[in-house]
Amino acid sequence: METYESIREWKDQHITAFLDDTVSLNRFHDQAMHKVMAVAKSKMKKDNPPCYFTWFITGSGGRFEQGYISDQDHGIVYEKSNEENDAYFKELGEEVSYGLHITGYPYCKGKIMSSNPIWCKSLNDWQAQLQEWMENESWESIRHLHIFYDARALLGNIGYIHQLKSFIYDYQLVHPSLLNRCIANVMHVKNVIGPIGQILVERYGIYQGCVDLKYAAFLPYVNAIRLLSIKEGIYETSTLVRMRQLIQLNGYEKILLNCEKNFSDLLKYRLSLVQGKTYPDTHYLNIEKLSKKERNEIKRILKDGKRLHDEVIALTLSANE
């Protein structure tokens, strides 16, 4: 019988064989998480879950964009709420979060985990939660809505996740102001291109000379494409897949020019940061260690990401006027 410790050992021994591309690496992460959930379920008092449920991951894992080290972002949707079901999934959520931590997936600082009651609910309660987030004008509510829209079913019925995403899509069709609030939540991006076209790097600290790929490069692409996906009712989570589906829709070919290649290249650069010992380490790219060609490539990716972000916001705002 596997344990969390044996899964950690297996994961550490084999993960380096999957660092050639992001798809292989994320399939490996999925496999590791499946193993953790199997152990967590075996520790429950009941042999089987009392009702149907879906365990989903979100964040970079939901988007199939995890790097070498990844923290936890996950939740549970179960069929219906009653005393037995609520107690079971509360315990399962706490157990799987603990198991992932032991296996090498750090706890999420924002508590986006199945151990948090906000992220472990029945289907009806999830719908009520989404309704509250969409009606509440706080920054945190819209942030949570964005996080949920990146949810990908890892175990169980994908239909629960699609049903809840369609609830968000249908709501924004009737209430276009929701998209404006989504825009406000992601309006600002980290400026890393200077007035003469130079890359602005961290000036002090342990990441001196580095650029923060997460905030300066990834988020402009991820946030812009997610915004268009909410607007168009695209339920896929991978940023690259979302781009391909958006390109098939009339009017997005020009705005997404070169974006698929840029994002693919960005994922490759992130994979080069496997020497990082902590989760933040895997986001900082040392510009000084790059060749001239690579620096120009990173500069293009950063510039195009900012352009995409600004154009998507302008396009979405004008459509809602």
Automatic annotation (TrEMBL):
Domain of life: Bacteria
Domain Protein-PII uridylyltransferase N-terminal: 25-137
Residue ranges constituting the DUF294 domain according to the UniProt record: 177-311
InterPro entries in the cross-refs: DUF294_put_nucleoTrafse_sb-bd (IPR018821), GlnD_Uridyltrans_N (IPR005105)
Record-level Gene Ontology MF annotations: [protein-PII] uridylyltransferase activity
Pfam family, one: DUF294_C
Name of the protein: CBS domain-containing protein
Species this protein is from: Paenisporosarcina antarctica
Top-level taxonomy: Bacteria, Bacillati, Bacillota, Bacilli, Bacillales
